[in-house]
Amino acid sequence: MSATVPPIWHHKTHRIAGHLFIAVLTRYGVTLTRLRLKDRNIHDSWTMLRHKLVRWTRVTTCMKNTAGARIEVRIDARPNPEAYAIAKAAGVPFKSNRQWRKHLKQTD
Questions:
Q1: Residues 74 and 100 sit within 8 Å (Cβ to Cβ)
Q2: Which of 1-5, 23-27, 61-65, 71-75 has the least mean pLDDT?
Q3: Got the DSSP string for 38-92?
Q4: What DSSP element (H or E) covers 103?
Q5: Taking the C-alpha atoms of 34, 37, 42 and 43 in order, what is their torsion angle to the nearest 10 degrees?
């Protein structure tokens, strides 16, 4: 598999090392995810997986109440059937019987 590696624009050694560390961890995570999916008969490329999952989003709305406290409402979009199958095969924990979920958080 051939991958295009973007240039690293960091100049300090510790930043280059951090960048490479994150890149290696990411590659390891992608490989493990694809292996898990292949075990469950999903043989898509990483690009195709991302394309199928791109519309499954989480929306966070922030506002202030009359007392001035910040309120956050977080809603997960419903995954399309392809995204649901990928998430289930990858072992992503969520309750399939819930269409969406709200998270209400109030801070002072």
A1: no
A2: 1-5
A3: HHTT----HHHHHHHHTT--EEEEEEE-TTS-EEEEEEEPPPPHHHHHHHHHHT-
A4: strand 102-107
A5: 20
Going by the DSSP 8-state scheme, the letter that residue 11 receives in this structure is -
Q: Measuring CA to CA, which residue among 47, 55, 52, 48 is closest to residue 4?
A: 47
Q: Is the dihedral of CA 16, 35, 44, 55 positive or negative?
A: negative
The single-letter DSSP state of residue 32 is H
Q: What is the pTM of this model?
A: 0.59
Burial 67-100 (b: 16+ CB within 10 A, else e): eeeeeeeeebeebeebbeebbebbeeeeeeeeee
